[in-house]
Specification:
39 strands; mainly beta; globular; 5-stranded mixed β-sheet; 4 helices; 4-stranded antiparallel β-sheet
């Protein structure tokens, strides 16, 4: 065991020394003068918005799971927290002479990472909390604006995926966060459910009573780390009563999270909504992805007695579907219930009930969700207008007639290349990063809207007509596979980001965005920094001869049958092209 620890420490020390040496040399790299002159030749380089059907999120999660488990097929679900406990117990015993140096974040401070949820402080609405898909819980006291708008909240626990946030409006110091990102069960083996498509690990529900300074475990899934909590709700009439919609079913607590009881044992609860007038009434959507959740279990369910009994609703709803469904209740009339229903890779329809779910009308089938019905599908109804509805697909889709028709309000492809300063606009006022997962509304101003995406947070002051980015200091981007360092310039680096292009580090925390889409492996020529390589999905290789100003692409043989990303190293490929 000691030898393993020494090896681990050696790796950490080596990485730390490498980073320190690179930061110790004060050099400034010349930025390409005019990115507007980029010439993107080759079919793989040309990114057209009409061709973008999916972000590749499913494949990226599959790949992430596989590489973490290699050489095994899967990681036992208790090993994640066991590793945390081991490191916590043993790292404090590191000999003081084993100086690992001081670590400093180098960003990116100007590129928001994949995010899942947001909550606005009910009293001071300049305070907002956002949950990252792999970067934990973050807080802003400026409403998300500014170059240093965000601060990471240390919960003291290892879960990096925050999927739900609930703030007690009567006592905002009390908060609950749900953790884990699980989109589906794929099959059962030896009595165990295997989750093949999933995001980051979770440990259940955490609670704070002092505004986030310290946290305790509430629903403790420390040794069940592949589960996810998609929604935590607080009963506004009895704040000791909580509900949680999870990948393992619906749970209820009667003692403010001290203990939990399973109320519905159906897998993959993707959404859960509480009637604010009659708090014994809840609605839940069950099922996602074509997996081992029986089709007969998938659907929208309702309880009239606080979760004791549940009824699957029909009355005009589809008999079954295979993707993600999100539910909304209109604040001014809780009998108005809205449902945005998807299949795995297509949109089913937008449905509305005017009698608390007894009967439903299909209003629209034309929302362009692409092939990500299992993944996106953010949803909100404006609190003071039942006709204003937003659905999140690759873009922001808005209806002003109650869901009968929708128009596209954002353009994901309009983002700006280059070193956009942290906190500054990342595109024109119609730009919102692709893949909208969640919407939130300012409780004191219903015109102010928050849009949570694969590229962080975007705000609107006119409920989805125009937008501006709010990602300054939200350091949560996901680096896919490799990180390339220059042999000539210690502060010149290149990395591939999940759904956030590839990006150069050039000595400042505002990274230089280049190329497009999902950045994968990358490399810098050992003798000439002007020659760089990036990899796009499914084996597309791209080369720049001018330090990232322009790119040309070429395909490996049989590319379309290749993996999401190539498992073998870039090294042998690059060595033949220097």
């Amino acid at each position: 065991m000691k030898s393993k620890l020494y090896i681990l420490l050696g790796i950490i020390i080596f990485a730390g020394l490498t980073l320190l040496l690179s930061l110790g040399i004060e050099k400034t790299r010349t930025v390409p003068k005019d990115k507007s002159t980029n010439k993107k030749s080759g079919e793989v380089i040309e990114e057209k918005k009409e061709n973008r059907k999916a972000s590749g999120a499913m494949e990226s999660m599959q790949w992430m799971s596989e590489i973490r488990a290699f050489p095994d097929e899967d990681i036992p679900q208790d090993k994640f927290y066991q590793a945390f406990e081991y490191s916590k117990a043993n790292l404090q015993n590191i000999n003081q002479r084993d100086d690992l140096g001081q670590w400093k974040s180098i960003g990116p401070d100007n590129i928001g990472g994949r995010s899942l949820c947001l909550a606005v402080h009910p009293v001071d609405t300049s305070v907002i909390f956002m949950g990252s898909a792999s970067g934990g819980l973050w807080k802003s006291t400026t409403g998300g604006t500014g170059a240093t708008a965000w601060t990471l909240i240390n919960t003291g626990y290892p879960s990096s995926a925050v999927s739900s946030i609930a703030i007690d409006s009567a006592n905002p110091n009390i908060m609950y966060i749900g953790t884990g990102e699980n989109y589906g069960y794929q099959y059962s083996e030896n009595g165990l459910d295997v989750r093949v498509t999933r995001g980051m690990y979770g440990i259940g529900i955490l609670k704070t009573t002092n505004g986030g300074q310290t946290w305790t475990k509430s629903l403790d899934w420390s040794y069940n780390s592949k589960s996810g909590v998609w929604k935590v709700l607080i009963n506004p009439k009895n704040r000791n009563i909580l509900y949680a919609g999870t990948s393992e079913g619906i749970y209820r607590s009667n003692n403010a999270g001290g203990s939990w009881t399973q109320m519905l044992n159906y897998k993959m609860v993707m959404d859960l909504e509480l009637n604010q007038s009659d708090t014994s009434v809840l609605y839940a959507s069950i099922g996602n992805l074509t997996n081992n959740v029986p089709l007969t279990d998938k659907g929208i369910y309702k309880t009239n007695n606080g979760g004791i009994n549940w009824t699957k609703l029909a009355g005009g709803l589809p008999a079954n579907w295979s993707g993600k469904t999100t539910i909304e209740l209109y604040k001014g009339n809780q009998d108005l219930v809205y449902a945005s229903i998807s299949n795995d890779f297509s949109y089913v329809g937008y449905f509305k009930s005017t009698n608390a779910g007894v009967n439903w009308s299909q209003l629209s089938t034309s929302i362009p969700i692409g092939s990500q019905g299992w993944y996106n599908n953010g949803h909100i109804v404006k609190s003071n207008d039942p006709n204003t509805v937003l659905v999140g697909t690759i873009n922001v889709e808005k209806s002003t007639n109650g869901g009968s028709s929708f128009s596209t309000k954002s353009d994901w492809s309009a983002w700006i290349e280059g070193p956009t300063p942290a906190g500054e606009p990342e595109g024109p006022d119609n730009f919102v990063h692709a893949d909208v997962h969640y919407y939130a509304e300012n409780p004191k101003d219903p015109n102010k809207l928050y849009v949570i995406t694969d590229g962080g947070l975007y705000r609107s002051n006119n409920y989805g007509e125009t937008f501006y980015s709010c990602n300054g200091g939200f350091v949560t981007t996901q680096f896919y596979a490799s990180f390339a360092n220059s042999f000539q310039d210690s502060i010149f680096c290149l990395g591939g980001l999940q759904d956030n292009r590839s990006a150069f580090f050039q000595g400042t925390a505002s990274w230089y965005k280049t190329f497009y889409g999902d950045g994968m492996s990358c490399a810098i020529n050992s003798q000439n920094d002007q020659i760089c390589y990036t990899e796009y999905t499914n084996g597309s290789i791209n080369r720049s001869n001018d330090g990232g100003v322009s790119w040309s692409g070429f395909h490996l043989p049989d590319r379309h049958n290749s993996l999401w990303r190539r498992k073998n190293s870039f090294d042998s490929f690059i060595s033949n092209r220097r």
